[in-house]
Amino acid sequence: MTDTLVLFVPTHDTAWRWLRIAGDGVTGRGEGMPVLAADGEEHLVAVVPADAVTLHWAELPDRSLAQAVAAARLLAADASATPIGEMHVAVGREDALVERPIAVVAVTQMRDWLSVLADYCIDPDVLLPAPLLLPRPETGYVRADIGGAGVVRGPTSGFADEAGLTDLITGGVRPEILPRDQMEAAIIAAAHAPVLNLRQGPFAKVVATAIDWALIRRLAWLAGAVLAMTLLITCVQLLTYSLAADDLERRADVLARSGLARGEAVNDADRQLSARLERLRGGGLGFSRTAATVFAAMRATPGTEIRTLSFDSNGAMRVTVGVQNEGQILDLQRRIEASGLGATPMGQFQSVGGRVTGDIMVKPR
């Protein structure tokens, strides 16, 4: 547990005093300015004089500290003759009580305290009014000497003990004097869990942001792990795609072998299938399509007939036709060409027995 240094800010007629707390016990005490911990890890609580702070208790909004402070400023403005712009208002919480403590102090006084502490290189974590070190009594009042000055605390009040003023506030009720051991226990409890901290709003302590290298290293390891997992997933996907492609290629090769002639050695299934298809189909558009085109043209030309038909590997078909007159040769040629093929007469057509015969070469354009 971090040690706590409780430093009592002096008034004009008192000196610096301090307590050092470790756990639930006081490990040191003294007057004057203490020696601060070399590692700077000490929790610093500065206790300010009671006569410089006015304390109130009131029911405040509990949604947020900002709302509570805004409501407290309105209450302080009604209870003080000093302009609210010159006052610093802080709100605390005491156990589970509905009424919350409100501290009102001059802005200039806050600046003076922090400036004096800064002169000794002290930037306190908590600035606590002296009356709030005392335990809250259920009834009546309690009194103790804090930092060389008397302080009185009631259920909803806290103030400096001054002759005449104390009797007026307490209505003649004599405050109970806290024994030394109870006072030290109350200081320890208040230092560990202060009821109110004046360092709020514009006077809040600025916490320096330190680079957490351990966190950065962990984030770097996590980023590296995420990158490695991403690369691993990509590699697994590539391997899966590669295996699937190999399987498809193997299946295609098996199917290709079934389409080749039995006993034919397979070196390049795709090329060999294409070659066999070309042999079966023929060049150009193939025998079937070329022949179908020629037969369609013959049917559309009355009085024509096919006498011979030959098809070569280049996709050309030589057709010997017989027609009634030479005009039908031209009609036949046009119909074949209209189907997208070229039709060229081969040599002279001869007239035999009242029929005109000759050859037409049909091939792709």
TrEMBL record:
Q: Which residues cross the membrane?
A: 219-241
Q: Which Gene3D superfamilies match?
A: 3.30.420.380
Mind listing the UniProt keywords for this protein, alphabetically?
A: Membrane, Transmembrane, Transmembrane helix
Per the database record, which ranges form the GspL cytoplasmic actin-ATPase-like domain? 41-149
A Pfam family cross-referenced in the UniProt record is: T2SSL
Which InterPro entries would you find in this protein's record?
ATPase_NBD, GspL_cyto_dom, T2SS_protein-GspL
Among its keywords, does the record have Membrane? yes
Q: Write down what this protein is called.
A: Type II secretion system protein GspL
In its UniProt entry, the species of origin is given as: Sphingomonas echinoides
